[in-house]
Amino acid sequence: MMPQWTPYLVGLPLLGFLLSGLLGLLWPRYRRWEIGIGVLAVSVVALAFLLALGLFVGLPQEELPLRVVLYQWIASGDFAAPIAFRLDTLSLWMTLIVTGVGALIHLYSIGYMRGDAGYWRYFAYLNLFIAAMLLLVLADNLLLLFLGWEGVGLCSYLLIGHWYADREKAFAARKAFVVNRIGDFAFLIGLLWLFREVGSLDLGVVLDRAGAIESTALGAIGMLLFLGATGKSAQIPLYVWLPDAMAGPTPVSALIHAATMVTAGVYLLARLSPLYVLSPGVLGLIALIGALTALLAATMALVQTDIKKVLAYSTISQLGLMFLGAGVGAFSAAIFHVFTHAFSKALLFLGAGSVIHALEGEQDIRRMGGLSRHMPLTYCTFLLGALALAGLPPLAGFFSKDMMLTAALGSGHEVLWFLGLVSSLLTTLYMGRLLVLVFHGAPRAPAVSRAHEAPAVMRLPLVGLAVGAVAAGWIGWPDLLGHGAWNWIGRWLSDSTADLEHGLSLGLEALSIALSVTVAVGGLWMAFRLWGRAGLEADHMLQRRLGGLYALWQSGYRVEAIYERLFVRPLLQGSAAPLRWSERYIAGGLIGLASRSAFFIGSGIRRLQTGLLSLYALVMLIGALGLLAWFLWRSL
Amino acid sequence: MAIPWLSLLLALPLVGSLLVLWLPEGRLRLIRCFALGVMLLELLLAAGMMGQYDPGRAGVNEPEAFQFVERTRLFTLPLGAFGRFAVDYYVGIDGLSLTLLLLTVLIGLIGVLSSWTIERAPRAYFSLYLLLIGAIVGVFVALDLFLFYVFWELMLLPMYFLIGFWGGERREYAAVKFFLYTLAGSIFLLLVLIGLYLGTALDPGAPPPDRVRVLDLLWLMRPEAYVPGSLLDPSSPGLIGGHNARLIAFAVLFLGFAIKLPVVPLHTWLPDAHVEAPTPISVILAGVLLKLGGYGIVRLGYGLFPEGGLVFGTWIALLGMIGVVYGAFVAAAQEDLKKLIAYSSVSHMGYVLLGLASLTQEGVAGALFQMFNHGLIAAMLFLLVGVLYDRVHDRLIPHFQGLSAIMPLYGGVALFAFLASLGLPGLAGFVSEALIFLGAFSAEAVHPGHVLVPRWMVLVSTAGLVLAAVYYLWAVVERMFHGPLRLQRQEWQAALVDLSWRERIMFLPLMVLILGLGLYPQAYLELVRSSTNHFLEWVLTSGKAWWPGGIASGLGN
Question: Which of B132, B151, B474, B482 to mutate to test the interface with A (most CBs of A within 10 A)?
Fold first, then answer.
């Protein structure tokens, strides 16, 4: 396979977007041809996946990284940003995730969106989403990466707001975009600073010269880019958009949470890992933020009653673990977790979509229960996804999570490792709770008895993803087994990432793994016991036992209210009055004299003006033409 | 024989402006089509000229490198003790003026399309409209400062009438305010011209007994043009009230053009003028007229007094930063859609100053590009307001909700324009803003020891990006376009039909250009590269040579 094919990875979904978009825009009849629209959208992404697979198989690892330049995008002065793609083990791996999981989500959408008035628009944006994400992943220049970066922000805006006639959904879409823009703003400043220090934004140059950057500047750049990553990857302090983002159609949530968008931040850290390992302080902060986010989001996930919100907070928590992994220098492990998490989370969202679909739009888990009898396939796959996410060996999530936790322990961050372990415990609890409340027990709403399996086009992706959720972890066995020889993914990714070595003794590693397994098994057992016996009563019991803490979790630590009071209101409402005042008196009054005389003269002119307009025009014209005639006469 | 492209470009709208008065008043369609034909022909002319333009020639201060130059003496005026004053018809363009000239022609054409709804006194309207376009073209091509001044003033009158006669309810107030502000700007310009005439300007060509003074812009950029010891002599500038006269001249010129740009706090005429002006005039105003301010600062301010750019750089950047942030905040607080967009113009033109002040290649190219992009984007935004206003004669944001439900295409086009304006990568506005930021942020490193743009100013300005997202997506899209349909009056629903074919044709070229230049900005940047680089070199070398503190200030390259 020739590397020259790389631009088509982005080009194919982009073509799908253009075709769906233009045909739908110009040819109203096309909008109702759902099969055509769906097949087009799925096939461009599937083709991109096959192309990525071809590159993965056909390019020997030792020939990477490769650079494919399309054309010069922006060049001015010392600055140049080409449209260039970078093929290396990291970008190729991410491409496989994005296109593979993305294609399955596209396929599922054919069934899920059936009959929607904006069908063509939906698939056009879905294709654009994939294109933007691939651009982000494959860009060889950070400004080009920024194009993809903001591009996924735009697509999430368009797709979360797909049903924009609903105010709440429109609000969620705008909130996602604005919160992301705050992160992007930090990201852009980081880029400006980086350019100032290095003189280029080409990845190769930046990574080469990272060592020459003076350490405070390097730290500042790292912080700014990290802040950008917290926006996209929904970390403290910018996570607030993600729980609302589930307002979009469910497959969109799957796409945002699994294949695109939120993985961008983790990817950025891994991409720039040679730069990050040079500033240990920033890395430590990343690890801390990650661990805190993982813990806090997991507690919030435990008390949600909306099936998609549980999954949304779960994503934030899992991303926190990835940031913890990156922060302790285990970048390849973090990307490994992106990979395994993509399968289980996409699976869970699509399964939730099937449930919502079957219950005619019901999302409240208090009005579910007992669905396993009516939807056996959805139940089986959902079960696998939940167990994989909970980290039960030998399902996928276990391997990647374990790799990050051992790295945290090995690098001497015992406290953070412990926080990660607690988050894992909470993960098993909320996943067990969700599973039991949705699928087990007696039905708590009449709609449940009418529930039925979704059509084949929606079942097939579930099966595909379930296979991944089971087996995706087997490419990265712990060092304990085979001394790293079975850790294929680590060897593959560490060509591109600057992982920090950690000297964890085999004994400690064994202890860590044993604890992980104990937590997974024990937590699940606890959850099944607690909610399996008492059902919703268990929630109430927890509420009574935990009291204020439970309420705090339900309110999301009141973060939204604090942001509202601290930033939104002072900035928007608070600034309105002083600005009106300054417009009237400072800017206006500065030339107050002039404006007063304006009225005076104006009243004089008014009397002359009306009706004589053509005369004025004529006089002016004669003057202008006189000048021109003179010139023409002189030049003859 | 070479085709006198610039004279043709100049004469066509002016002649058209006269001819349109001969058409019968009742034939509305004929009058419109005539104006449209004139502007189409103008666009063809501009395209033909572009075909022969050589982007490799820099221009700026080298008369021989200017293109399509025509020069004829118009008249000579004996002024007694003040010598003999000659005025030349001297036109020519370089990379600094070329793209703005093209912008004028394009926006002028689209403005005619959007004038289709004007029914009151159409002959006078189109006559004034074409006169306005001719005058703007004149400003961009003039190389004789007197000629420049004449066109500058000529532009003012049709604008005054177009706002004052075809405008909204408070049109007379707005027109007079516009007139007075702009007149104040002209007076500043005139002051400097008089200063230049008195101190300087011996025509290089003429033999000694017949020496006349001519305000040749390019000649005045050379030190030998100035009488030694005169007020504005670069080698030993005179003093006014104890201050360097050349720096004062720079400041006065800057002030004059700053009103037009506009720079906060001299901007208050702009929202009023926009709110009252009819749609096509708002389009011209935002799309082209504001750029005259930026062009004047570049060509006259930095061109004639380059040391001013070095001395006042930080202040200029500060004004830019204030404009960016202040404009954005005020925009977010508006209820009137047109006012909101007017303030967003204030914010976006602030970036121009920031880039220019940095005196880096990225910053200056970005500033020029930003003017061009803002011309396209602001034109689109005002056209969008016009679409709404034409249908229901209202444009207050709270009066609309859920517009996308009944006008989906309009909603899509509007979203495109807003995204372009808030600097979404992939669209043209992002490239120019990114270049400005890159240039401004590196300014310290490019000019060691001399702070032209402190980094914190750039940081504060980038907040404009977030604010723009807030005021467009929250204040406009979410409130007006999304949510369930709810209008102030029931009967509006029938009136609010989606974009007509004429309107689609109006938007299409702008959208194509905005997207095209976002993905392939080199098409623009290559066009202005040699000129901006040469401009920068000129400002830095002569600015340093004429720097009041001497070269010892340690200004690097």
Answer: B482
